[in-house]
Amino acid sequence: MTQLDPIIALKQGAAELGIHLTAQQLWIFETYTALLLDWNKRVNLTAITDPVEIAVKHYLDSLLCLAVEMPRDAKAIDVGTGAGFPGLPLKIVRPDLDLTLLDATGKKLVFLDAACSELGFLDVQLVHARAEEAGREVAYRERYNVVLSRAVTNMTALAEYCLPFVAVGGFLLAQKGPDVNEELEAGRNAIEILGGRVEQTIEKVVPMSDYKRTLILVRKVAPTPDRFPRPRKEISAKSF
Fold it and tell me: For a designed S-S bond to 145, which of 25, 43, 170, 198 qualifies (C-beta 3.0 to 4.6 A apart)?
């Protein structure tokens, strides 16, 4: 990574995506970085500790999601959010989003609680739960217009973790690497059974880098059958 100022890298990279970041938004991102690096000394939040790389590999990567139109005031949930990606960068740019951050690791939720308070996002809901458990709860099941995941698991498993949260008519937006065709084909049957339909795949390059991303948009066209999601040990790529 070249030795750029992280704020300049973020501002220029966002501009490449057609996003104009205000001085206030840049300050929020800068504060987020300071919090992330401070908490990372005590809690394992990220392996990326260079501020420029954080700006590019976390923030700009997250903002790629805005290549997909999200309705005004959309109810969104970031499943397996970790240190808040992609949810919190999207909230900074789109404060209208009604955002929920879900993660199974309690220490990460403690960080996110402190971060949301410091950044002024008091309306962000935090959920400490496993996706396959929360997806069966009435409070969360089929309640969201937009479900986000920057997870590394395969599309078959990811669909079972995430599609139960999506309201019919809404969509799952999965951030994947560049070579996803085989994985996506393997997951199509599961996606259909779970009430989804692959509507769009978008190939992007993260600005200020050569890292390639594929965004997979799965539209929810029918309710997820009651038997899903199953317990974690039953969720596997060969189970549909």
Answer: 170
Centroid of chain to Cα 191:
18
What tokens appear for 18 in the block?
């057609």
For residue 13 the two structure tokens come to 């990279």
pTM over 0.85: yes
Structure tokens at 135: 């997806």
The encoded tokens of residue 111 equal 């960080």
Placement of tokens 């019919």 in the chain: 168
φ, ψ dihedrals at 146, nearest 5°: -130, 125
Q: Give bridge partners of residue 77 from the DSSP assignment.
A: 100, 147
At 51, give phi and psi (nearest 5°): -55, -35
- Where do we find the tokens 């005590």? 42
- Nearest CA-CA partner of 175 in 209, 198, 152: 152
The top-level CATH class assigned to 6-234 is alpha beta
* DSSP result, 15-72: HHTT----HHHHHHHHHHHHHHHHHHTTS---S---HHHIIIIIIIHHHGGGGS---T
Exposed (0-12), middle (13-18) or buried (19+): which is 45, by Cβ within 10 Å?
A: buried
